[in-house]
């Protein structure tokens, strides 16, 4: 049996003409289509049928032109494998090219997959032809990755069956059509009031990168500074009418990054245009369709006056990530979905790399290790994690590996390799790889070969375990006079590694520095740990530190006294070092390698910290500890006191007002500290937040709430005031015109404190007032709120058949994300048992891995709580917090 379920290999497409016409702009949203496919056939003994991918399409007729014309007599659909077999009713003897023409019918769905419609409320006058219902207007666009091109037209829908594409779309005269390539010509249609837009032929590419969109669009435009084939390329951000000015920030990032990547990859951007399109309903953050990149609105639009500053960072990074794919993914594509990490891991790393290039003052790598690396550790510390490169049997399995392992572990491991080889050598190897495989497909080994050649090192040898083995190591340090011993073993958050799970020996770059103090320490000559255990001499006991800047993807477990000393020496360390120190102390406590008092004693040192990224890591780690112990009353109250005392000096120093010269990170620090201080009960903060909330909500003074402080102020008000504030924020959600306003309101409403309000909020989330793409936002906030966390599970259990499954199962990516993030915060194995029992008799294909993560996570946290409860109580008591 093959390790993958793919189409018969003797039929390969080389060119498609996809024509869509008779689109219904309302009613059933159906359309008629013709797909004309040039196929190379190599079956010497003849064939009587052809197999293609098609899903939720109705095929009307088909014919194959060889030297004669052969009509298809019968279509048989395999719904489960999303295929259709075209039966000619006779044997055809033909090798070489032939032309297959299929006439079909499809539907523009509303589940954010395939060719779909998004609802929105327009600004300004809208042409009468735009599809609408009572409350909303609609735009149409596509999302084909991983395997949803087959929902839009019959095709050979696998990443290595590349072809060129011609697209033409019949649309109303007063609307705009977009596709991967520029418009070639427009012809009058026989249908009154319609025109047909023809696009230039695409380069050779995978089906999942094809895209088109139809709507009432407008755009802002800029040009690249570099010339491509003698011309400055047009770069545009398209939006529905009335929003284009909010595309200016993304536009400004975009043209600079296209030029930057053209230099870095040593290959000019290969298409004649770059379009970015804001889509009102979107399952992911964005999608890298070649030349027509689609985005969730909050990942591409930014309004200097009304957006929270955190979204500036998001837009810059997501724009860079998707542009990286234009080379890495689109020009060179993974051979099969098992190597998805090649696309996503690299685009994530190089997306941050480009953002750092444009915004050196944002401390991008500090942010990367606090967000991406720590999140990857969290998922990869579970027993049932998966390797970065994971076997995929068929395309339908792939959606669940678009996860933190492919993106975040993948990018962290690439950062580790780049740091080891040196950035210049690493990027040269990447450029060589892209040149060698452009317009075709490649494997992980092809990348390693190019990097080995560029660096003169055997990259495959030391990277292989990182890519193909599950999990990552913890390096445990033991001290002796003048030397340390280091030992590696697989890290599990449950702390119970079995011998058969601990056979991998990783190549571990030690990044070890030592000296009389942190400021003057220098890098030690021992580069890497390449065996299970080693002793390293010439260590100055005054100061040493492992994994400088957290470039290595592993946890470090120091002796408790050393952890305390490193806390005292923190001023001589980088932001990445401090993030690593706090993150490692938390994780080793959960896994039982260390203990929670070590983490608490460490972060107690950080009262005078002034960096946003460090506070962000403290809030994440301390928030997780508080969440785990939230069911034990005395510990819960003691940790809250500890948190309040820790944060008070910084909260009182940061203030409420934004100065014109405040940097990006200062604003982020203010938002984070006020939110944290207010929620933990800092009196002056609560009082001021409520004062500003009342001025804003009454309409008396809308400037009382700075856009970047909406989340803090709304959240504090909902927590303190209950129903009246909840209703006010709900009304803000329904009326806000700011792009990020809805996400912020949903996050804030999740701070409710009673089961009744939590249930009311969940019913609101599952009403048609909240778009499918946003249903997880409010739910994550409820799951993070220990006061009402159980209500999320109760709602899922009691309303699975009436609300949850019907609303989300059309798009399993969305359902899986909703369950994973909605249920993974419990620290009580009896809840894990309830969840397991509930889903035991249900068909969970497409979200089963998410449920496994939930189960494993809850059991890990339950074990941690039971093990450390006494220790935490003792520490809090000894420090006077109980």
From TrEMBL:
Gene Ontology biological-process annotations: peptide catabolic process; proteolysis
EC number per UniProt: 3.4.11.-
ERAP1-like C-terminal domain mapped to chain residues: 543-859
Residues the record lists as binding Zn(2+): 321, 325, 344
UniProt keyword Cytoplasm present: no
InterPro entries named among the record's database cross-references: Aminopeptidase_N-like_N, Aminopeptidase_N-like_N_sf, ERAP1-like_C_dom, M1_APN-typ, Peptidase_M1, Peptidase_M1_aminopeptidases, Peptidase_M1_dom, Peptidase_M4/M1_CTD_sf
GO molecular function: metalloaminopeptidase activity; peptide binding; zinc ion binding
Cofactor: Zn(2+)
Ranges where the Aminopeptidase N-like N-terminal domain occurs: 12-209
One Gene Ontology term, aspect cellular component: cytoplasm
Pfam family, one: Peptidase_M1
Leading EC class: hydrolase
Residues at the site labelled Transition state stabilizer: 407
Domain Peptidase M1 membrane alanine aminopeptidase: 249-466
Record text on cofactor binding: Binds 1 zinc ion per subunit.
Active-site annotation: 322 (proton acceptor)
Keyword annotations of the record: Aminopeptidase, Hydrolase, Metal-binding, Metalloprotease, Protease, Zinc
Keyword Protease carried by entry: yes
Family designation: Belongs to the peptidase M1 family.
Protein name stated in the entry: Aminopeptidase
Species name: Sporormia fimetaria CBS 119925
